[in-house]
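Working notes for the structural subgroup meeting. M.R. asked for a predicted model of this chain before we commit to crystallization trials. I am recording the input and output together here so anyone reviewing the notebook later can reproduce the run.

Input as submitted:
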Amino acid sequence: MQAVVNSVPTTNLNLPGSLPAHTPRARLLAALSHRTPDRLPFTWGFGATPEMAATLRAHLAPQGVDWDKLQAATEDKLHVSPTYRGPACANPSLGIWGINVRSANYGEGHYEEFTDFPLAGLTTPQAIDAYPWPNPDWFDYTSVAAAIPTYRTRATQFGAGNPFELYCWMTGIEEALMNVLAEPALVQRALEHITNFLDIRLQRTLASAPDGIDLVFFADDLGTQQGLLMSREAYREVLQPYHRRLTDTVRRLAPRAHCLLHSDGAVFDVIPDLLDAGLDTLEAVQTDAVGMEPERLKRAYGDRLSFQGAISVQHLLPHGNPATVRAECLRLIEVLGAQGGYLAAPAHAIQVGTPPENVLVMLRTVLGESAYERAWQQARG
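Returned structure, recorded in token form:
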């Protein structure tokens, strides 16, 4: 199955400039343009949790292989972001929004748990307006262009933000979802402030590196295991205008860039609205959720939507064996990778307790033997 996908010639891929068809960037851009690359592109996505990364390092060290080098050698994306230079805070990605976290122990590792919700209990637009919102001037945008090589072999991705998720983090998920139904104007007022910041930062990032950003990554979880967090009608009324505003900025300033949305869960029913909002790639593709079967997704939207992820970190990688991992990866390649449109990746962060052998089988299956062996040799020492 994989040989069929990987054997298609890579001529006439309409790649940017004179980009050779065999580079990771070329593969990835060809796939997102619904053309078949020389082999499937791969990204680690959210990667492994710190605890799982430590497990992989310990597993590979006796074989003379450096996990961090192996990860770098097999990653098809370069992630760039403006450097924070604003008021001192322990975690700028959250601290600038007034969000504080603490480390919570779950036995085998730790996760970050929110300790307060700065917008919780605010009931008027005026109170939302009075909140001390972050300033886009707190970032050095020249650092983006400096981080992008003149000749880049990997696709360049900028993480542009998560408007509704930030609102949920600042308000608390229960209050946020209640407000979507009972106080939509209040939600929209907060989203105006959040999106204004994200949009200005996006504009300045794209302007700082003309033609340098290939992928713009947005994130707003819209689904649970069973269905949507909000109705399609609520999405269109409350949230879609802000997604569209951000994708319109990308289309205006970086028309060749692709717009990815990360969302976990069962989001099949809202995909038409995501497409209408200007998003062209669905990231995560949680196939364990209701209605998210790869065949169904590809059949319904494969001509208009690309997919990144789909390799289950919930069941397949932690609970499968090497044979089932290989078989499922081959199936995803055959289904989602048909005629392009698929970036293979774990559906989310690989959790501690996952057998390292399963992670390596996933990588070997997706890359193919020759590419895997090259990366293995690069990671030695």
